[in-house]
Amino acid sequence: MDTNNTVHSGEREVQLRAGVQERSAYVMQHVIRDAMPEQHAELFEKLPTLLVGSLDAQRRPWASVLAGRPGFVRAPDARHLVIRALPGAGDPLALHVDQPLGLLGLEPHTRRRNRMNGTVVAIESRGFAVEVDQSFGNCPKYIQAREPRWVDRGVAPAARIEHTQLSAEARRLVSQADTLFIASATPQARGHAGAEGLDVSHRGGLPGFVRASDNAEGATVLTIPDYRGNNFFNTLGNLAAHPYAGLLFIDPETGDLLHLTGATEIVWGEQEGQREIRFTVDEGRFRERALPLTWTPPEYAPQFSQAT
User: Fold this and answer.
1) H/E element holding 298?
2) What whole-number distance in Å separates Cα of residue 13 and Cα of residue 8?
3) CA-based nearest residue to 248, from 226, 224, 229
4) HSE (CB half, 13 Å, CA atoms) of 177?
5) pLDDT tens for residues 196-226?
6) Domains of the chain as residue ranges with CATH
7) N or C, where is the chain less crowded by C-beta within 10 Å?
């Protein structure tokens, strides 16, 4: 891949402001591929979950999670993933051929994570197939180590709509979270577009790292710290170019899911490396007992060990 197809203008803007543009562009050119290496395919195939970022009809990003017994994601070759799962009731993920998706394979107990941004190329009664646009790994920073266990939660109740001001139940899930997932996109996000696509990424911290407040109009505003990472700035670059995001919070004990979409603002601190994302809720879905998994209590990432 050449640099023009691995880095877009929003990423360059944020990299430049952070003072890492030359180095980041060089590294991205060498690690972002249009095919999965063997170890990435192996990880996807052993997981019980797959994080997915998508756009709705209004081009708002949403973050979702699909689940299945290990093997429900297959890599028939280095350019494709076949997912034997479809969105459940109330999931904002709507699938159609040629749409861009951001995919994240995350194994919390080993802190492995791989990204695959791609394009839907087929939809069947049991699932769908995605062709690789970009494939790259991420470092294990900020991932809370916990192991999954399959559980039978019965029939989940209908999803509840969340409005601009979050319910008490939704705010409680946010306040207790040590992990979230964020979907973002470029303004021109489309299938088979290389860097001009869609992304879903992980954010981790100690419980309470996401702060909730209300603005003058009564809408809930979530403030998310942007900790130092690989300096690619895939998420912040997308937000600089297209300031909207989707958030997903997962309750690791109950399987409850909170999907949110809204507008964002990047807030730069006075000191180097200090950045925050301010997310104003536009709409959401609260899905009780939607995920048939539970996780062991976390072992917090080494970056937070002194604070625990």
Assistant:
1) none
2) 9
3) 224
4) 29
5) 999 999 999 999 999 999 999 999 999 999 9
6) 3-307 (2.30.110.10)
7) C
